Protein 1
Amino acid sequence: MFGMAFGGPGPLLLLLLAVTVDAVFGDWLDRVLPDPARLAFRFCNAADARLNRIQRGATDRLLRGALVVLVVILLAALAGLAVEWVGGQGRGWLLELLALLCGLRGRAAWTKVRAVRRALEKGGASAGQEAIQGLTRRHVYGLDEHGVARAAVEAAARAFDRKLVAPVFAYALLGVPGMLVWTAMDGADAALGSPGIRHGRFGLTAATLDDALNALPARLAGLLLAVAAPFIGTAKGGGAFRAMARDARKHPSLNMGWPIAAMAGALGLSLGGPHRDGGVVITEAWIGDGRARATSADIGRALALYAVAALILIGLVALLMWGVAGV
């Protein structure tokens, strides 16, 4: 199998070890290991400032944005291939494990959402607005306490998909190159994929490719959250499945509606909805049919759901490894 280290653990055992280590030590690792998504984000921001000029034609900006994405993908794929080549040499599997830990940010993302809950409880809306920055594309200073709580619950759903399920899926399917390409595209989409005049053409390739790569992982993330719901007090698995079937396609993103709808349905919340960006009201559909007045306690329930779904994901990796070993 791909990435098999001579005399070392196979790829699925490496994956199981990596997700377990991330679940326990991810906060500390986030401070010491480079984040491929963050590196890609910085590269794309620099390219955006240099290459994306408003006065250029639409086709020119589209081609320049596509070139930036192509460079990001090639660099990530080449880095992944180099890691796998070294991984086949003696104790090189340690480098492959390290690369996996660089790409997995599940625990770190969970901790950032928890910080929003603590900020809301200690400092109210203003503290929550500061803490939620970087976790949402909404204009944070237009959010009240309930808006901050809803944004944090949505951030938990997105992070479960993008920082845990998607990199695990990419590695299981295409090894280290696939995982690094995914994490790099995660950063590229964060930098260039937002809708609007500036990135409508320059960021189109990043947004489209991100949607394609995340199509299956996002749906898997929603399924895992729904399966985890019965283990969380008042959460309801049936509500998660109903919300996904009814509302997932209402979300502006082709993919994010699935984990967000699962989270909303499981917790009995309404997420998304209209919000203000400065003096402009942005109209978005509501996801879920529960309470819109989310609280810090709902963030705690979302974090618990995230944690249980992560444990189920770890169990699935273990089952897959056992199944492959038995063949």
Note: The beta strands are 271-272, 275-277, 280-282, 286-287.
Protein 2
Amino acid sequence: MNLDGAVLLLVDYQQAFDHAPWPRRWNGDVDRNGKTLLAAWRAAGRPVIHVRHDSVEPGSTLRPGQPGNALRPGFEPLAGEELVSKSVNSAFIGTDLDLRLRRLGAKQVVACGISTDMCVSTTIRTGANMGWPMTLVADACDCFDLPDGKGGTVPAEAVQAAHVATLGFDFCTVTDTQALVAALEGN
């Protein structure tokens, strides 16, 4: 796997997602996988950009000043790592993410976070449409059970599978934590 010029983009690893009103998530390993990838990325001396959703919606658990707005333990930026604040699903819309990537000399973006079908997917789609080669680390992502509009629920596992398949079909390369860590150690 070629990681030349790759920047790791950690999308919305925030504490709010562990509590109501957010529905059940499927991936009990999201934090472990995300932290494993982040540690390997840092050890390789590669650039990291953190993304935080700063909601402008009244009452949102992701609103600045709310406990849920904070990044999950272990995902806080270290000195020299950038933090992009966004208020919509895509980390590219209304932010300077594209400029930051260019200033870092990025050639590709490796993304993961919460949730696969919302902010991660929208960021990958936007980035791909802007010309960035995008990679999704599927097992370092998570998503929620969603209402199906008919009184039922679409399980988070099905939401994940459909979105990973769609993204991999047309917008990005799909990989997993183990493959990326091995590629980092091989470089």
Note: Residues 6-186 form a domain with the Rossmann fold fold (CATH 3.40.50.850).
Protein 3
Amino acid sequence: MNALPTVLTIGYENAELYAFLDTLAAHGVTLLVDTRERAQSRRKGYSKTALAAALTERGIGYRHLRSLGTPPALRKAYRLDKDFAAMKAGYTLHLATQTDALEELGGLAARERVCLLCYEADARECHRSLITERLQKMGFAEAVEDLTVPGR
């Protein structure tokens, strides 16, 4: 029986693109899984097409799992009140309906060195922590490591 993988996570908040890419490479990431509902960013280099191209140049794959993103109504409410407990409750209900995407992610993690992407620097304040928690409960991951981009 194969050992379960460690799933990595990273946020790009205040991260310079090249330091971000260097961090992924230094940790042996082979696939970045974008968990944003909308893979767009006002930050140069972090929108889907530009990010995928930059990752390809580094030999890192890109996969956008939109269904694991935070639904717009939850994201808007969180932006207004910064109540992570309320966002967590709503997102946990959403995540319970995303079995196919979670199983796909678990399969990817079994074959690749996967890192989950979202915006927030601190995974404890981001839905990606809820995704990794669910992956562990489903038996797809042994551990989680939250990466920090130097120089923020």
Note: The CA atoms of residues 91 and 148 lie 24 Å apart.
